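lol so apparently i was supposed to do this last week
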Amino acid sequence: MTLDVRPEQPADRETVLRVIAAAFGDHGDEVAAIWDGLGRHKRAGLVVEQGGHVWGHVGLSRGWVDARRELVEVWVLSPLSVLPERQNEGIGTALLAAAVETARESGVPVLFLEGSPHYYGARGFERADRRGFLPAALERTPRAAFQCVVFEGYEEWMTGQLIYPAIWWERDAAGLRDPRLAELEERFADLG
Ligand SMILES: CC(C)(COP(=O)(O)OP(=O)(O)OC[C@H]1O[C@@H](n2cnc3c(N)ncnc32)[C@H](O)[C@@H]1OP(=O)(O)O)[C@@H](O)C(=O)NCCC(=O)NCCS
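anyway here it is w/ coenzyme A bound
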């Protein structure tokens, strides 16, 4: 049976929130609430369907790079969720590829995310700090986890700090805090 990746529709809301909550375990309700809250903001979601069931979801929401010349509109990829019973079958990889294409087609210059450098690095993302970008939570984002894909519209002056919409701060969900922050910094220490 083929995997069908399609845009999230308003009617998918409850299903998508359930998929996110299940994928993220203990933090699931919080992550789902952030995605729901982004409904009042500019966002785009994709779902993966097979056999009439939604097995995964990826969210894109608008952020900005605070460049010297002007504010640059970008996309931030979060969250990426696959139902636990279907993880490690390539669904996340398919959703990620579709999200990158959606971002590319929208004409933004850059797509950002915070996540595993192993997972995303093997799927086309590069370290954003190496292009001079600064993460939204400056002191609380392991640099190896702050990643991006740049598209055709990217120009070298578009550098600066990534700005997240207010909900990330209202929910204290930008970057990480100790002890998780220290744990990941240690895990990524060899990546510089
Ligand atoms: C992370 C996640 C989206 C990956 O999707 P998936 O469909 O399970 O993954 P795929 O089948 O496309 O890829 C499998 C790879 O993902 C890795 N992987 C699975 N879960 C992972 C995780 N939580 N962190 C990092 N890598 C993970 C596997 O080890 C495997 O690695 P390999 O390619 O080196 O063998 C999915 O496991 C998930 O929803 N996890 C819980 C929520 C989460 O952590 N989201 C990402 C937040 S940044």
